[in-house]
Design goal:
Strand content of chain A: under 5%
Strand order of the largest sheet of chain A: 1-2
Oligomer: heterotrimer
Shape of chain C: elongated
Distance between the termini of chain C: 84 Å
Structural class of chain C: alpha+beta
Radius of gyration of chain A: 30 Å
Order of helices and strands of chain A: HHHHHHHHHHHHHEHHHHHEH
Order of helices and strands of chain C: HEHEEEHEHE
Strand order of the largest sheet of chain C: 1-6
Number of helices of chain C: 4
Number of strands of chain A: 2
Number of helices of chain A: 19
Largest sheet of chain A: 2 strands, antiparallel
Number of strands of chain C: 6
Helix content of chain C: 25-40%
Chains: A mainly alpha (about 425), B alpha+beta (about 600), C alpha+beta (about 190)
Largest sheet of chain C: 2 strands, antiparallel
């Protein structure tokens, strides 16, 4: 046996070391004999830095402008123009992110994830529309929100959605809000952003499923006014409730209602309420009993919802990638499935023992249990509350815009003869001066 | 959209209404056309694109297999160019069509809205039905829908509650023991087996500590491969390799390789069934390296090792991989094609959850030799120790000295001890030279190392730094085997030379006790089981002798097949790899419950 | 009549209280979040040590052309003559011919530096972020090629579509003032 030297000539070339090897490199970076200079890695910085603050500034300006145009100027034409501006700016120009609807999740995540903090600009997108709604009603929906704007722009031939159907469909939005908050709190996913139907249009691209979903919603939106806002929007649900308390709000007539009924069908969103008439006497008795029944039912529904949410924790937890991964790894290790997935391979590559993953996922499942109780109780409260509010007799003497449902688009103004009177007076005043 | 109500007769649309309507219609048609174009483009990208790429891949594969001509080459290049050009064209097309679609949709809606406004009629509220009754009806209808929603929700909840969520892992992490945990060690406990667990297994080349000593005493002494007497089973091994079987509970692992394939095999100890075959990719660099190991080394000389949770295999190519006991490959990587004169042959060792790789290569002048500790779960290098030594063919051992673990490796000329936790060197002794192949052992409190054709040297492993002058216990100058590693207990150490000369010395002082010529060739290393020494010759005959001051033959058992690998001795069984088969010798009992 | 007035007053009082509570609530949430936020902006980024180069980045981005591209840190690169990121696993010849290249878009350029070293650079506009080269470089080379979200392209979606599809959970939010997670020499 003799010692041979290099036999592996070609590859030895690759292995040859020129300098002290760093760490764990297989092929130590060479030291060049020529005056070759290594290129540096270019890393372009994100442009968002100041844009976010410009966005927040534009938001404030548009909110004030919207308030002025909706409550003072009462001009649909101007409101429409501002709405188009918002659509172009927040939508097409800024590509639909940040938006107030999604910001709900960022704020939630801030509360639950110690490593995450919501950027100030996003926080403003979350809070400012709420504050404005508390003061002036849903002016944000009327002329600032790009999601509302794109639907409002395509509305050509509005058809009436019967009230019973509308009440039922609206429940979806509450479920969506609850789920969005729950999944954001658990750090699973921002589902409201993931399934944002219109953001694909703003960016000229995206997941085809979402684009098709958005296209369908817009197609429906040609006939049914703002379907997303009314039946799906999770942020709209919060705005609805705050709007009930608002200091100022949209009124159909600038002065007083003359019961001319001209505005009856003016609202494409079914938000105009007719004056009420007294009920037949026997209806009162039934109504009282019904009210009492629903009052008792409310805590039952909340309890049942909480229980259901707890029982469903396993299913809810499925949205968390960690839980799905744990399940997959378990099945693979117990030979209940064939082959591996990218995710399970990646997990094994980390070298973490699987029991650690299992206990982590179990902990997540338990947290989903707590979240599920709250989510379920919330859904129970919404349904019970809805049933209650549908059983209460309201007193209305005039035609008015429903505080919660009115999207402040300003379409109804021009239907009111009193409004025309106001225009005429103002024109005369202007003419005189 | 106008501010003032339209001042026109209700039944006659305003001027421009028709124009607006026609514009809307035309724009609508355009929108549909653009949309169809976009969808077609999308389908083209997602259907035709991959098809062309597959075609290209097939052409490339054909190129490697068959004869390459200039035409084929240029055909491939043209197709490649076409694919890339097409991709950019489609991107551009989608971009332009998207904008055109947006523009036409905008026109459609503007015209549509305009038409709507121009055709606006004054509201003419009809005589309303009884408002009170209508409102009561509306509220009732709404209550029913909400109730219906509640029922639907309840139904979904009920359905989901009945069908349990797929959360099987919850059981595994909870206090209830998983039924599988008993079989699959990776379900519970730390991610590696303790030293105590390893002591009753055969987790690496020549068993725990690498010394070829088995703790079991119930090892068979009688069998015959021709008649099948004493043979539990025999299973063919698909690819050849000189590595030895390693055993963990009821699983036996070994590997094999050819120039184009590197495989790991797991056998069931009870039935001998091949449970799974794992494949280790050959790193692309190997093709260029023109690796040509000596025939006696083969392509899979290194014995595998397990830490009780995962098993590791390395090949002559420097490709190393880890598998779990279920046969899933956890990772693989190349440590670079080794520059080894006869072909890389060092076996693996495990320490805690790490796999130890002795990676000596080159002629010592190029700084290429390393000792690696790789993270067993990920293959990440935990530490590496550089050593200025040439290629070697010995295997590392981890032994416990005065309660501390030492990782001992024998090279030319150093016998080295490193701390297996961080790779720091503890001591070194200059004691061997040439092409070292017999591995060091730890017996009677001494580390014993062989320089082939020369001597056996004993080092006290208690020193620090260079201990050549201070810690040599003794040297025995009456020859040294060139392949077989030594075996020893507290009293005796045996050297087995390739031509059959067995030399026995006293561990205490290195004095020769006896020598005995077995007159046959040996490749496998000797082993001690209790008071017996097992010597497997190259023809497959096991010589069983008494451990003592003179050689006393107890038995000779024939397998009838040539053997190069060292056998494994675990709990009533011997596992022997012959050139073609894996043999299990011993009764069908006692498997799995070690100790 | 008197009772009616009482009723109205009580209702208004209730409503005002609720209104104030809502405003305080919004203020509280905003204040809490603002207190915590310390002006952090976030961007999405890939942890190169977690990335397994599965190829999702090329297809899941909402942009037509993925914002994820291959990044090369030359300080780690071994300047291999046979680059496992550049060449097909079984190259027919060791040259730049299309039949030998791994990259489907031809985005890696190979240039001779000095014997035996070759420089590899990424032609970013051509790169589609498929990560084929990353996989090769990680398995058999130094791992100097890795995927990163390029922030001149990324629109920074609130929920990154690739992150939702990432099998190794390698996507994470990085502070905007440190928007890249580059491999470094001492860390490699």
């Amino acid at each position: 046996m003799t010692r041979s030297s290099h036999t592996l000539i070609l590859f030895a070339v690759l292995l040859a070391t020129g300098a002290a090897a760093f760490g764990l490199e297989r092929f130590p970076p060479p030291q060049f004999e020529t005056d070759y200079v290594r290129p540096t890695t270019t890393v372009p910085n994100p442009p968002q830095g100041f844009w976010e603050y410009i966005d927040a500034g534009v938001l404030i300006v548009t909110l004030f402008l919207a308030t002025y145009l909706i409550l003072r100027k009462r001009s649909r034409r101007w409101i429409f123009a501002l709405m188009l501006f918002s659509l172009v700016y927040f939508g097409f120009f800024r590509k639909g992110c940040v938006c107030s609807v999604g910001a709900v999740q960022n704020v939630t995540l801030t509360a639950f994830d110690s490593t995450y903090a919501v950027p100030i600009a996003v926080l403003m997108f979350f809070a400012l529309p709420l504050v404005f709604t508390l003061f002036f009603g849903r002016v944000f929906c009327g002329a600032v929100c790009p999601l509302g704007a794109i639907q409002d722009a395509v509305l050509i031939h509005p058809v009436r959605v019967p009230r019973w159907l509308e009440s039922g469909l609206r429940l979806i939005a509450y479920l969506y809000l609850g789920a969005g908050v729950l999944f954001a709190a658990m750090g699973a996913m921002f589902i409201i952003c993931r399934y944002d139907p219109f953001v694909g249009f703003f960016r000229f691209g995206g997941n085809w499923n979402i684009l098709v979903l958005g296209g369908c919603l817009l197609l429906i939106g040609v006939f049914v006014g703002r379907p997303y806002c009314r039946f799906l929007c999770p942020y709209g649900v919060i705005l609805r409730q705050l709007s009930r308390l608002s200091r100022w709000r949209v009124t159909i007539t600038p002065t007083d209602c003359i019961q001319c009924r001209l505005c009856e069908d003016a609202c494409p969103f079914g938000a105009i309420r007719k004056p009420t008439e007294p009920w037949p006497a026997k209806e009162y008795r039934v109504a009282k009993a019904r009210l009492a029944f629903f009052l008792v039912l409310l805590p039952v529904l909340i309890g049942a919802g909480g229980w259901a949410g707890y029982e469903l924790r396993g299913w809810l937890a499925q949205i968390h990638p960690q839980v799905r991964l744990a399940q997959r790894i378990y099945l693979e290790e117990n030979a209940q499935v064939e082959g591996t997935t990218d995710a399970s391979d990646a997990f094994r590559a980390t070298g973490r023992p699987s029991p650690e993953l299992y206990s982590e996922a179990t902990l997540l499942r338990d947290r989903f249990g707590i979240g599920g109780v709250l989510f379920g109780a919330f859904v129970g409260l919404v349904i019970g509350g809805k049933l209650l509010s549908l059983s209460v007799k309201r007193r209305r003497t005039d035609y008015e815009a429903d505080r919660a449902s009115c999207l402040a688009c300003g379409r109804c103004y021009e239907y009111c003869p009193k409004e025309h009177e106001r225009w005429k007076n103002r024109k005369e005043r202007l003419g005189r001066s | 959209m106008t501010g003032a109500p339209p001042q026109i007769p209700a039944n006659e649309p305003a001027l421009g209404y028709r124009t607006a309507r026609t514009t809307a219609k035309v724009a609508g048609v355009f929108s549909v056309v653009f949309l169809v174009l976009l969808v077609a483009n999308f389908i083209g990208t997602s259907v035709i694109g991959p098809r062309r790429e597959n075609h290209l891949a097939a052409m490339k594969a054909a190129l490697r297999e068959g004869e390459a001509t200039d035409e084929k080459l240029s055909e491939i290049r043209q197709l490649d160019l076409r694919i890339r050009r097409n991709r950019i064209w489609r991107l551009d097309f989608a971009h332009k069509t998207g904008h055109a679609l947006l523009a036409s949709i905008v026109v459609f809606f503007v015209a549509g809205k305009l038409a709507r406004v121009l055709n606006k009629r004054l509201p003419r509220p009809e005589h309303a039905p009884d408002v009170g009754v209508e409102q009561i009806r509306e509220a009732r209808g709404a209550r029913w829908t909400v109730t219906a929603g509640l029922v639907i929700l309840g139904g979904i909840v009920a359905l989901l509650v009945i069908n349990e969520a797929p959360l099987a892992f919850v059981v595994a992490s909870g206090t209830e023991p998983s039924p599988v945990a008993a079989v699959e060690p990776n379900e519970t406990g730390p991610s590696y087996a303790s030293m105590e667990e390893k002591r009753v297994q055969w987790h690496r080349f020549r068993g725990p500590g690498g010394g070829g000593v088995s703790l079991f005493t119930n090892i068979p002494t009688e069998w015959d491969g021709k008649t099948g007497k004493g043979i539990a089973w025999k299973s063919p091994v698909p690819l050849a390799g000189n590595n030895s079987p390693v055993v963990w509970n009821d699983r036996i692992f070994l590997s094999g390789a050819t120039e184009t394939k590197q495989e790991v095999y797991c056998y069931d100890a009870v039935s001998g069934r091949l449970l799974w075959t794992g494949d280790v990719p050959i790193s692309p660099a190997v093709a260029a390296a023109e690796l040509n190991p000596m025939e006696d080394t083969g392509r899979s000389a290194s014995t595998m090792a397990t830490d009780g949770r995962r098993v590791y295999a390395i090949f002559v190519t420097g490709d190393i991989a880890a598998f779990d006991f279920g046969g899933r490959r956890l990772w693989y990587k190349s440590l670079g094609v080794p520059d080894s004169a006869y072909g890389y042959a060092s076996s693996l060792e495990t320490y805690e959850d790490r796999v130890i790789v002795q990676y000596d290569q080159g002629d010592g002048s190029e700084d290429k030799s390393r000792l690696y500790a790789l993270d067993g779960a990920s293959g990440r290098i935990v530490w590496e120790a550089k050593r200025e030594v040439p290629n070697s063919w010995t295997s590392p051992i981890v032994v416990e000295v005065e309660g501390k673990s030492q990782l001992i490796t024998l090279t030319d000329p150093w016998l080295l001890a490193n701390n297996p936790a961080d790779g720091a060197e503890i001591w070194r002794a200059e004691c061997a030279g040439g092409d070292v192949a017999p591995s060091p052992i730890y017996a009677g409190g001494l580390v014993l190392a062989i320089e082939p054709y020369s001597h056996l040297i004993a080092i006290k492993p208690t020193g620090q730094g260079n201990v050549t002058e201070t810690h040599v216990a003794w040297t025995m100058d009456e020859g040294g085997p060139d392949i077989c590693s030594p075996v020893g207990n507290d009293q005796y150490v045996y050297l087995l030379e390739g031509q059959g000369l067995l030399i026995c010395c006293s561990v205490a002082d290195g004095k020769k006790v006896f020598d005995h010529d077995l007159r046959t060739d040996f490749v496998a290393s000797p082993s001690i089981v209790g008071d017996k020494i097992y010597l497997l010759d190259a023809e497959g005959v096991m010589h069983i002798g008494q451990v003592g001051p003179e050689y006393k033959e107890l038995a000779k058992c024939e397998l009838g097949e040539k053997c190069h690998a060292s056998p494994a001795f675990v709990d009533g069984r011997i596992y022997i790899r012959s050139l073609e088969n894996l043999w299990c010798i011993g009764g069908p009992t006692a498997v799995g419950k070690a100790d | 009549m008197v009772q009616r007035n009482d009723d109205v007053t009580r209702r208004r009082f209730l409503r005002d209280g609720l209104w104030g509570a809502c405003l305080a609530g919004i203020g509280g949430v905003a204040g809490y979040a603002a207190h915590k936020s310390q002006r952090t902006d976030w961007v999405w980024q890939i942890d190169p040590y977690k990335c397994i180069a599965c190829g999702n980045c090329a297809t899941y981005c909402v942009l037509e052309e993925s914002a994820v591209k291959c990044t090369h840190v030359h300080a780690i690169c071994g300047y291999c003559k046979i680059c496992f990121g550049f060449f097909d696993p079984e190259p027919y010849q060791i040259n730049e011919g299309a039949e030998n290249q791994m990259c489907p878009t031809g985005a890696i350029r190979r240039k001779y530096v000095e014997d035996p070293y070759y420089e590899y650079t990424i032609d970013e506009p051509l790169c589609n972020g498929c990560g084929k080269c990353v996989k090769g470089c990680n398995a058999f080379g130094n791992g100097s090629l890795f995927l990163q979200v390029r922030h001149d392209l990324c629109v920074n979606c609130n929920q990154c579509a690739i992150a939702a599809a990432c099998p190794s959970q390698a996507f994470r939010r990085a502070p905007a003032d440190h928007p890249y997670l580059l491999k470094s020499v001492d860390h490699a």
